[in-house]
Amino acid sequence: MLDVQVIDDPAAATVALEPTRSRLLAELSAPASAATLATRVGLTRQKVNYHLNALEVHGLVRLAEERKWGGLTERLLVASAASYVVSPGAMGPVAIDANREVDRLSASYLIALGARIVREVGGLVRRARDTGKRLATLAVDTEIRFRSAADRAAFSSELADAVTRLVSKYHDESAPGGRSHRLVVVAHPQPSAPDPKEPS
Q1: Going by C-beta distance under 8 Å and a sequence separation of 6 or more, which residues neighbour residue 9?
Q2: CA-to-CA distance for 121 and 24, rounded, in angstroms?
Q3: Which domains does the chain have, with CATH numbers?
Q4: Element (H, E) at 159
Q5: Residue 101: predicted pLDDT
Q6: What is the distance between the alpha carbons of residues 193 and 168, in angstroms, rounded to a whole number?
Q7: Which one of 18, 48, 136, 164 is most buried, by most CB atoms within 10 A?
């Protein structure tokens, strides 16, 4: 089972986002049969089989085991991944594109960068898996609380200077066998934690 599967096919995205099928995917973190799932989700086995067939056709679940019971064969299916994310590529020509955004300080541009990461890295992971290779990546994730807007601006300036220095030091356009990498640094306000007193 993969940790994350990036869905870039529109039909597969439609199948995965349907509420009953999404629930079945969540239930299939461990192999289960249609009969077992029917009991868990409160549907008939025939309805569950219908939804499982759609998920299997799009590679969202796979056969884990077959068991023989007398003259019957019971199929146990399992989700293909622990979690899923829909690539912006599934949206086709209306997908957000960082190359179309003009204001590089806007929230829209930041979202477009995030979407591009999902699309590009999803494709790279798929190709690496198909060729049996490991994909080299780097991610830095941290939190910082600024005392003031002035401190935030100063930090942004220093960070940009530091990144520019590092890129100048390590970038080599003509290195034989070198490979270009994309570096994206983003910052946004952390969402407020929900009030525990509010009903969910």
Answers
A1: 58, 90
A2: 26
A3: 2-84 (1.10.10.10), 87-168 (no CATH)
A4: helix 149-170
A5: 66
A6: 39
A7: 48
